[in-house]
């Protein structure tokens, strides 16, 4: 046995072979059974339980994520997701009976969920374990075969997934392909029955374009600039802590639903900034750049990208808190900027980092125009106790999801669909929505040989027209009248 | 015919209308739906004429497949709209207390609807009803292959509907290309797989979500039936499902039939008799049959019969009239499976019959082909029905009837795999043009300290228990009783 095996390049041919193998497995019907799905979900549970230590290690290697965040944001979410799926799977798999109308009487109908087939999940680097396994839970629960392509930007997590999913899961139906652009390209050339992508809009376009060649449906979980509108009528301390919880204590702002920027009134801004400074210190100490309770920036590319945003001459003078950088350990201090110009770089791309611009307006209602002038974000947030403002916000602001008086919490609610709209994406998941995202809902109509309306067939006559009109409109009275008139004919 | 600039101006106007929020109100949506009803009533004759011109459709076919279905959709939408528009409360686990959660549907914005030529009126109106119900502004692009209907839509829609919110843009491939360069919030396409790919590729540039209602080869599995009247009825339904609706030019029309070898001749005789009863015996006699839409499709269909092995399998029909664009209802018995007739969607009046030894073999046969829009199974065998459902995949399965599933508003209408994705009809039409926005509301009291750094062991334990929804454990922890 050779000590070192030559690492085979994963090219188009490999991808094609992989898909054929999985299709063969799928066609045997193995993955459709309830037992198989449950066994795989339980294997995932075991994997997470038995290798929690390795998960924490991988995430700390990739992102220096604090352990508490790992438990809340990755492990806890997955355990909860698996528990829900295992509890609900039987219900989800059951056909949904549907009411039929007079028009098709006598008939009965139902909607039957079935797996799409061989699916591809492309994951992201910021929650590399969660965003790989959570969509897989949906794919498996729905009875599909799955290929996972973890992000190469989080290499320790990618290795973890390749190793342990390989050990714990049924490899005839579930596989991991590691790699970067060449491997992803090879995968995207194949015909999948569904592609689930988490990442940015630029790649999202490439994924959808590739899917178009095979008419493959896609779910795209993208991002955007998630605004936080902060009114003055709030509990300032709680709101501030929640904002911090949704920014720096949330993978250091590297999350698709983290607070991107704040809009508040000119009058309230100083109070908010003071409160933020105070609470940042409470959470992270007097020198937050050294705090171990914040994730670091993922890599030097992103560090440079964020530095560029700060170096922009339009904003460098607007820093009111933080601003320190340490490239050697890939850290930037929690940084707040006040009144950056709307045409600055930082206001025109998703920040995905520890920089928090605050824009000010005269009246809080003016903030809505700023938000609606930009692309629809994945989430939008409002802090206020005023009911009228809440209603206006929900009515006016279109976003994937909206939360009032908190940040990002909606992604932990499995009864809410989690997904974007417009530039922030298409499709949704979590809970039953995950199952649905990977299912085809087949319509089934049962008819019999009794009760045939001869009006359906030629040769046609006036009487038939009347009856047809009544039948189509499901009008019982119409049918009776038409029958009466028909017999007169 | 608009220029690029006219198109841009129209789009600016539509987006302005959408921003003004006029299309959001229940009143506006209802008024537009009622306006379509008015259009149907006042222009019924013009609709009959246009469809007769474009496809030679009989008025009853027009009523049944184009006007009646639209009327039904509108009435259904009008009665349900307020309910559909309302927020849906969702249940929240206790750990999020105090909070409330709901899902609120909202319009996507500017919608583009591409219409196909075979049901050029209803396939324009039905998606339009969905788009309007959901509160969007719309551009409707009728098919240039049904020019009379295209003109009709272009003339009448501005007369009845809000022309600043709903516009009709006519034209051919060039206009389609121009439209596809723009940014839409949703594209709804009915048509062929080839064009579906182009649409989705273009949509990818703007991350525009699409619904693709495509086609495929819809098979009929004809099982043995116990008595003559059932056989007669089954055959009537097959004939109606093949030639009765746009002469086979429908995405859900019967494409081919699978039957056991021993029943083939009974079937063929029965089909023959029924065809002649419904439509006549010769090309000159035919009434109640739409014609083939144009020369291009006529030639396509005729050339399917050019293959000598295919021609040799004709058991009934096979003649045509190029001037009238009519092809005789034609039945073929076991044409070669690698012929174009059996690999492409027929979309015309040619009906292949494929025989098998045992009817259960139909399942493997169907699975060897791409997933179709519908599978029709005429059978009373309950076990066989279950097998069909679990071992095949299609947009829809209809047992013991043909085409009628189209009228069932409660069932989603759409494909899977190459037959498309996305769905509509009934509430699904509303949903397909909506974004379901999650809304979570929290308040300030009862704040969980453990949510925030600096992290420590207690907080970690707390969070782990919270995520397990282990309320008892949480209480113990807080009382200092949990290790």
UniProtKB/TrEMBL annotation, chain A:
Residues 18-444 form the Aldehyde dehydrogenase domain. InterPro entries: Ald_DH/histidinol_DH, Ald_DH_C, Ald_DH_N, Aldehyde_DH_dom, Aldehyde_DH_NAD(P). It catalyses: an aldehyde + NAD(+) + H2O = a carboxylate + NADH + 2 H(+). One of its GO terms (biological process) is aldehyde metabolic process. The active site is at 221, 256. Signal peptide: none annotated. SUPFAM superfamilies: ALDH-like. Keywords: NAD, Oxidoreductase. One of its GO terms (cellular component) is cytoplasm. Belongs to the aldehyde dehydrogenase family. This is Aldehyde dehydrogenase. It comes from Dillenia turbinata. The lineage of its organism: Eukaryota, Viridiplantae, Streptophyta, Embryophyta, Tracheophyta.
UniProtKB/TrEMBL annotation, chain B:
One of its GO terms (molecular function) is aldehyde dehydrogenase (NAD+) activity. It catalyses: an aldehyde + NAD(+) + H2O = a carboxylate + NADH + 2 H(+). GO terms for cellular component: cytoplasm. Gene3D superfamilies: Aldehyde Dehydrogenase, Chain A, domain 1, Aldehyde Dehydrogenase, Chain A, domain 2. SUPFAM superfamilies: ALDH-like. One of its GO terms (biological process) is aldehyde metabolic process. Residues 6-439 form the Aldehyde dehydrogenase domain. It holds the Pfam family Aldedh. The keyword NAD applies. Keywords: NAD, Oxidoreductase. Belongs to the aldehyde dehydrogenase family. This is Aldehyde dehydrogenase. It comes from Dillenia turbinata. The lineage of its organism: Eukaryota, Viridiplantae, Streptophyta, Embryophyta, Tracheophyta.
């Amino acid at each position: 046995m050779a000590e070192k095996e030559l690492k085979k390049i994963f090219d188009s041919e490999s991808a094609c072979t992989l898909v054929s193998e999985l299709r063969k497995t799928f066609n045997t019907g193995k993955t459709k059974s309830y037992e198989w799905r449950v066994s795989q979900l339980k294997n995932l549970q075991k994997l997470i339980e038995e290798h929690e230590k390795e998960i924490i290690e991988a995430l700390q290697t990739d992102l220096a994520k604090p352990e508490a965040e790992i438990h809340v944001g990755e492990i806890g979410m997955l355990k909860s997701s698996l528990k829900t799926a295992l509890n609900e799977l039987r219900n989800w798999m059951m056909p949904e009976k549907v009411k039929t109308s007079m028009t098709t009487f006598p008939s009965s109908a139902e909607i039957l969920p079935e797996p799409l087939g061989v699916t591809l999940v492309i994951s992201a680097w910021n929650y590399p374990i969660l965003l790989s396994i959570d969509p897989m839970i949906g794919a498996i629960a729905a009875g599909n075969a799955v290929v996972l392509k973890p992000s190469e930007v989080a290499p320790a997590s990618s290795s973890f997934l390749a190793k342990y999913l390989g050990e714990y899961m049924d490899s005839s139906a579930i596989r991991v392909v590691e790699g970067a652009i060449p491997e992803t390209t090879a995968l995207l050339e194949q015909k999948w029955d569904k592609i689930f992508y988490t990442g940015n809009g630029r790649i999202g376009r490439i994924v959808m374009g590739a899917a178009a060649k095979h008419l493959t449906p896609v779910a795209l979980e993208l991002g955007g600039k998630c605004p936080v509108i902060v009114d003055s009528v709030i509990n300032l301390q709680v709101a501030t802590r929640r904002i911090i919880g949704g920014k720096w204590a949330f993978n250091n702002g590297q999350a698709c639903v983290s607070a991107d920027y704040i809009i508040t009134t000119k009058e309230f801004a100083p109070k908010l900034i003071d409160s933020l400074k105070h609470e940042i210190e409470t959470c992270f100490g007097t020198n937050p750049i050294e705090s171990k309770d914040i994730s670091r920036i993922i890599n030097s590319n992103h560090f440079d990208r964020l530095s560029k945003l700060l170096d922009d001459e339009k904003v460098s003078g607007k820093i009111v808190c933080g601003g320190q950088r340490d490239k050697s350990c890939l850290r930037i201090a929690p940084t707040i900027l006040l009144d950056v110009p709307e045409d600055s770089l930082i206001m025109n791309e998703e920040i995905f980092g520890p920089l928090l611009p605050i824009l000010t307006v005269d009246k809080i209602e003016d903030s809505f125009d700023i938000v609606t002038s930009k692309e629809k974000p994945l989430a939008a947030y409002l802090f206020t106790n005023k009911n009228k403002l809440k209603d206006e916000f929900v009515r006016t602001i279109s976003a994937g999801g909206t939360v009032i008086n908190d940040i990002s919490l909606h992604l932990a609610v499995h009864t809410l669909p989690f997904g974007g709209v417009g530039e922030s994406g298409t499709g949704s998941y979590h809970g039953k929505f995950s199952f649905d995202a990977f299912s085809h809902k087949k319509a089934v109509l049962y008819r019999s040989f009794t009760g045939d309306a001869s009006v359906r067939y030629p040769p046609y006559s006036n009487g038939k027209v009347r009856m047809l009109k009544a039948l189509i409109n499901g009008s019982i009275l119409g049918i009776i009248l038409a029958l009466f008139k028909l017999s007169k004919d | 015919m608009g220029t690029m600039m006219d198109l841009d101006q129209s789009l600016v106007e539509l987006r302005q209308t959408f921003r003004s929020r006029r299309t959001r109100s229940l009143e506006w949506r209802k008024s537009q739906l009622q306006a379509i009803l008015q259009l149907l009533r006042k222009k019924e004759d013009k609709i009959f004429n246009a469809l007769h011109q474009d496809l030679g459709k009989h008025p009853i076919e027009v009523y049944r497949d184009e006007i009646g279905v639209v009327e039904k959709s509108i009435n259904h939408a009008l009665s349900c709209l307020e309910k559909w528009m309302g927020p849906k409360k969702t249940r929240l686990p206790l750990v999020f207390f105090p909070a409330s959660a709901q899902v609120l549907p909202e319009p996507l914005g500017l919608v583009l609807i591409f219409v196909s030529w075979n049901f050029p009126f209803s396939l324009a109106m039905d998606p339009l009803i969905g788009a309007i119900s959901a509160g969007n502004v719309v551009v409707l692009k009728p098919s240039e292959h049904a020019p009379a209907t295209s003109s009709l839509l272009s003339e009448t829609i501005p007369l009845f509907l809000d022309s600043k919110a709903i516009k009709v843009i006519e034209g051919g491939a060039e206009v389609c290309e121009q439209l596809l360069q723009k940014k839409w919030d949703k594209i709804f396409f009915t048509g062929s797989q080839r064009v579906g790919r182009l649409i989705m590729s273009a949509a990818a540039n703007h991350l525009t979500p699409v619904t693709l209602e495509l086609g495929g080869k819809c098979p009929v599995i004809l099982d043995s039936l116990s008595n003559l009247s059932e056989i007669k009825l089954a055959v009537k339904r097959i004939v109606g499902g093949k030639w009765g609706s746009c002469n086979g030019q429908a995405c859900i029309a019967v494409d081919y039939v699978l039957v056991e070898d021993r029943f083939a001749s009974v079937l063929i005789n029965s089909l023959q008799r029924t065809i002649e009863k419904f439509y006549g015996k010769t090309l000159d006699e035919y009434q109640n049959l739409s014609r083939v839409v144009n020369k291009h499709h006529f030639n396509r269909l005729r050339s399917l019969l050019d293959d000598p092995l295919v021609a040799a399998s004709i058991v009934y029909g096979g003649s045509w009239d190029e001037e009238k664009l009519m092809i005789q209802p034609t039945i073929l018995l076991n044409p070669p499976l690698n012929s174009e007739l059996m690999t492409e969607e027929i979309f015309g009046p040619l009906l292949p019959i494929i025989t098998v030894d045992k009817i259960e073999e139909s399942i493997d046969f169907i699975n060897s082909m791409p997933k179709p829009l519908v599978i029709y199974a005429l059978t009373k065998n309950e076990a066989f029905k279950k097998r069909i459902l679990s071992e095949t995949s299609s947009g829809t399965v209809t047992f013991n009837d043909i085409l009628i599933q189209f009228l069932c508003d409660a069932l989603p209408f759409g494909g899977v795999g190459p037959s498309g994705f996305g769905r509509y009809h009934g509430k699904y039409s509303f949903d397909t043009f909506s974004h379901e926005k999650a809304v979570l509301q929290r308040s300030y009291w009862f704040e969980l300290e453990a949510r925030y750094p600096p992290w420590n062991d207690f907080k970690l334990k707390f969070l782990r228990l919270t995520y397990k929804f282990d309320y008892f454990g949480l209480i113990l922890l807080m009382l200092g009783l949990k290790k």
